[in-house]
Amino acid sequence: MKIFYPFLFVFFAQSAFAQLSPVEKKIIDYLKAHHWEAEELLIESVNINSGTLNVDGVRKVGAVYRRELDKLGFTTEWVDLPDSLRRPGHLVASRQGGQGKRLFLIGHLDTVFELDMEFSPYQKLNDSTATGQGVNDMKGGNVVMISALKALHELRLLKNTYIIAYFTGDEESSGSPHEVARKDFIERAKTTEIALGFEGAQGLNTVAVARRGIGGWTLNVTAKTGHSAGIFSESAGYGAIYEAARILNEFRTQLKDEKYLTFNPGLISGGSEIRIDAANARTEAIGKTNIISPDAFVAGDLRFISEVQRDAAREKMKAIVNQNLNGTSASISFTD
Question: Structural domain boundaries of the chain?
C-alpha cells in the first residue's frame, strides 16, 4: 500500500492558495511547518500491526491516536464490543460545543494485514511516496484528520465546536451481527449534521461525495464424489471445484461491466473435506488428486452504488448459482 504526502490542504496550487482567507492560509502554513510531526505519527501507527483480528494491535493503534486527541482537549473513550464478536472495539473522541455545524469525522484503526502475513514496515520510496501496512488504508487518512485538528487547535479554532471523531476497529471485517458492531457508531452519527470520511479517494486532489455500500456473500457447492478417472462422465459429473469455478467465471462475465459494481471472491476452499472458520476468515481442506471433490466454499464481497443495483446483482448471482450444472448442487447467501 502506498501513500503520497504532504498531508491535507498542502496540495493547493499557488493560484488556489491566493484565493484562501487569511485564516485558511494560517492553517496551511501550520501544516507545512509541522509536516514532520505528521510523518512521525504515521510511522508510529504504520509500524504497529493492526489487522482486524489482531485485537491487541488495533487497540495499540487506538492508544496512539487517543494520546494525540487527548492533547487537543477532546474527551476520548474506548467502546468495547461483546466478546462473541471477537473484535477490538472502537475509539471515539468528542467535543460538545454549541456553535457551528455538528461534525462526524470517520476513520478506522484496522488494516487487512493480519499477524500471520509478512510484515511490511513504513518505508520511504522517494521524497513523496511511502509504503507500509495500512499506510494508505487508512492510517494516512487518520493522520490527515488528526493533523487538521491539531492545526485548528493551535489556531484556537476548536473552541465551542461540536465534533465527534470516530475510529472503528473492524472496518475491514466487521463484527457480526452488524447491528451490534455498528450500534454505537450509528447512534452517535445521528447526533451530527455533516459526515467526513478520511479514507483515500481517487487521486490526490479529489473528494468523494458518495461511497458505495458493501455486503458479503458465501457460495457453497456440493457434488458427487468418486475416483478422478470418472470425472466429466454422466454418472460422476464435474465435481464441486469445477462447478465453483464455473459460477465464479459467470459472475465475472455477466456482471463485470456494470458501472460502480464490484464483487470479489476473497477466500476459496475445496476438497474431500473442508472446515470453515468464518470468525477468523480461515478454512482447512483435505483432498487428493485422484478424488473428485464433493465440497467447495467461496466467500466474497459485493460493492454497489445503490440498493437497486445491489438487489439486481444478487438476483443475477442467484440465477447463475441455481443452474446447478454437471451433477452438482449449489447455494449462495448474502449479508449486509
Answer: 2-197, 213-335
Spatial contact of 330 and 308, defined as CB atoms under 8 Å apart? no
Any alpha helices (H) in 93-194, and if so which ranges? Answer: 140-154, 178-181, 183-189
AA letter at 190: K
The confidence score (pLDDT) of residue 280 equals 81
Determine the pLDDT at residue 201.
Answer: 65
- Which class is 2-197 in CATH? alpha beta
Which pTM does this prediction carry?
0.69
* Strand pairing class (129-131; 328-335): unpaired
d(CA 111, CA 92): 18
Fold annotation for 213-335: Alpha-Beta Plaits (3.30.70)
For residue 214, with 0-12 CB atoms within 10 Å meaning exposed, 13-18 middle and 19 or more buried, which class applies? middle
H or E, element range at 168: strand 161-168
Low-confidence ranges of the chain (pLDDT < 50): 1-15
DSSP code string of 139-163: IHHHHHHHHHHHHHHHTT--TTEEE
